[in-house]
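ESCALATION

Customer reports they have been waiting on this structure for their group meeting. Please prioritize. Original submission:
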Amino acid sequence: MKGIVFAGCSFTWGEGLELYSKYDSVNINSIKRYSYHFPDMGYFMPKSHLKFIESNRFSRLVSHHFRTFDLVAEKNGGNHQTMINHIKKSLLDYGDDIGLIVVQITEYLRGIKMHKNCNNECCSKDLVRMVEDYYSVKAGNRDDDTLYYHDIIQNNISGEPQDELKKLGKQYFTEFIEELKLINEKTNIPVKFLGSWVEPMLPISSNFYEENLIKISYDSKQYDTIHDLLNEHGDDLIIANELKWSNNWHPNLKFQTIISNSIIKYLEKNSVL
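Update from on-call: job pushed to the front of the queue and completed.
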């Protein structure tokens, strides 16, 4: 059985799963006092915590079932561009030993940022022009000349900026799906999808997406997206509802099993691997 590339955000990476390890190095008192902070908890965690996460996230459960290996991005978090980068690097590094790509959809606006007076191709000139009066927005030690998509949303920069932001997000997301389709056509490696964990802000009108969507099976019901599953069963599947002190609202160990079982069932039923 060939290896599987899993691309996604913190839901695929497995943020917070180390809290179930019961290792002495999990500083429960500190988390209770200061809460669980990303990226610090992800970038500076002990290696034992990372190994626990790797052993218990749904990607590893799936790969073990099929007696193969799984590839997940090294860093926590991610947007659709980082997913593409991870997939391409995995294909370059492992070549013909990759047999499947599983993509977990995240927020479609992620990764959009604006640099003040940007003269490069990294920014939408229209969006930069629309938000030029809002560069006093700061967060932490962020570059003062950079705004991110959530600055526009959270600071209620409404009207044209919001419209342009969503327009740009839809454009990037469409390009993301098309690039995955091209990878599939070029390599003949199947690409499968898990629906997003956020409430859909963007109707996905893509035959390629619809035809390759893995539905999530739980409690005698099927769900098109992670959001739909958590909307009905979040109380049972979120870390913070199980480990009250954690203040981490990512999926728990039970969720990992539900997702892995759904993927396994889909792959076996459709003879994908």
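Sent to customer with the following note: Confidence is low (pLDDT under 50) at residues 138-142.
Escalation resolved.
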